[in-house]
Amino acid sequence: MWALATLGVVNSLLLVPQWIASGGLRPPWIALEALIVVGAFLALPPRRWLQLAAWIVSALFVAIGILLLGDATARTSLARPLNLYLDLQLLDAVSNLLSGSLGPAMGLLVLVAGVVVAGGSFVILAVLLETLAGVDEVRASRPADRDGPRRRHRGTFWIGAALAVVGLAVIPLRWLHPQGVIFGLTSVQLVREQARQAVRMVGERARFAAEFESTPSVYAETPGLLEGLGGRDVVMAFVESYGMTVLEDQRYSPVVRPRLAAMEARVAAAGVYMATGSLVAPSQGGQSWLGHGSVLSGLWLENQLRYDLLLAGERGTLVDDFEAAGYSTVAIMPAITMAWPEGERFGYDRIYAHADIDYRGPPLNWVTMPDQFTWSFLQRAVLDDDARGEGRDGEDRDGEGRDAEGPIFAEVGLISSHAPWTPILPVVEAWDSVGDGTIFERWADAGETPEELWRDSDRVRESYALAVGYALDVLASYAANFVDDGVLLIALGDHQPAPLITGDDAPRTVPVHVFATDSALIAPFVAWGFAEGAFPPVVDEALRMDAFRRWFVEAFSTRASASGP
Question: Residue 152 — pLDDT band, cuts 50, 70, 90?
Fold first, then answer.
C-alpha cells in the first residue's frame, strides 16, 4: 500500500504538469523515475542514511514538479518551453498578472495556496519514502546478529528490485511504442532541455553582437531622413494579443472579420486611406516588449537576453531616427505601473506611464484603463494643438499651433484585449464625453468576473474575440474621427495570444494597419506588400518585425530625396 501511494505521488508530480500542457489526460501515463525510486527504496537495506535520502529525494522531486509546472505554463501561455536562464526574472510579472487579473487578495491567495501545496507535497512524499526505507525490515535470525545490520524480507526486496529493473530496462525501449510514448522520463527531459537552453544562451551574446555589427545603429546620416513624411505626426499603436488567428480561425473570424470590413467602410467614408499587411512577432502570449523592441531597434529580440543586451548597449532605435529628423518623441504606456527604466533608455522626450495619465475611471481587472481612454488621452494630451504648447521639459513654449513643437512620433500601448478579457466595453461615439474616464464607471462590474469566466475555456475564447473586436471598433472610430492630413497612424498586433486561444503550432504573424488621408503615405506600404483595405494579403512567408525599421526609414527618406515630400 505504501509503495502504491508513493508511486502515485511521484507520478503526479512528474506527469500532471504535462497533462496540463497537453490539455488533458494523454500519454505518458507512468513516470519511469517513480518506478526506479520506489524500487530502490524497497530493495536497499534499511539504513539511517536512506531515511535522510528520503527527504532529499522528496525535495528534488517537488522542485522538479514545480519546474515542470513552470514549463507547462510557459508552453500554454508563451508557446515555448521554460528557459531557467531567462525566466526567473519573470516571476514578478507573473505575480503582478495574478494580482491584476484576480485582484490583490485573490492573487495573494493563489500564491499562498501554491506554497502550501508544494510544502505539503514535500512532507507527504518524504514521509512516504521514509516509510518505504523501513518497511518490512527484520533482524538477522541468529542471536549474535540481533544487534547487527537490518535487512529486508525477501519478498519486499524482490518487489523493489523488479520495479527498479523494469524502470531502467524500459528507458531504451520507450521510444519504440507504436502508439506513442506511454512511459515518461520527464525529469531527465527537463534537465536535458535546460542544459541545451543554457548552452544556447551562452552563445547568444556572440550571435547578437554579430547582428549589432551588421545592422545600422542610427540612420541620422540618411539623405532626407524621413522627409517623405512631410512633417506629419506618426503614431505607432500596439494592439494587445492581436494576431492573425482572429482572421483565420473559424472560432474568431465570424466576430472579427465583420469588424474589419466595417472599419474599412467607415474610414473610407471619412476620407481616410487604409492598407494592411502582416509581420512576424518574436513572442506569443506575452512579453510584448520583445515585439516593441524588435520594431524599434531593427533587431530580432526573440528572448529576454537579447532584449537585455539591447538595453545595456548604446545602440540607437527608431526613436533616435525620429529625433534626428526633428521629431519630438512620446511613449504612452497605460500598463506600466512600476518603474520603467527601458523608457529612459529608448530616449523618449516624454513618457506617460499609468501614474502619469489622468485617468479617473475604474480599473477593469488587469486592464488599467480601456483603449478608448488611451486614444482620447493621446489626442488630448499629445496631438491636439493645445498640447503642443508644452515642451519636452513640460514647460510652456512660445507660440501656439501645430509647429510649436514640431512633428511628433508617439508609441502607444493598447491593453483592452489583454487577458482576462472581461468586461467587454461598448465604444462611446461621443469622444468629447470620454473626459477623465469616469464615464466608464457604469461598466466596472459588467459581465463575468475573471474567476467565473475562466472556468470555461470556450467562454474564454468567445470573450477574447469580443475583446479584440472592441479594440478594433475603437481603432476604427479613432481613425475616422482624428486621422487628418497631419497624421500617419500605424496599428499592429504585439503578438499572437496564448496557445489556449490559437491552438498549438500557430504562426506568430500579426496584422499591421496603416491609415492616412494622403494616399502618398500609403503607397510605400502597398509597394512593400500591403494590400489596400482592412485585410492583409495572403503571403507565403511574412517578414519579421525587425525588418520594419530599416524599411520604414529607407521608404520615407529615399523617396523624399528623390522626389521631394
Answer: low
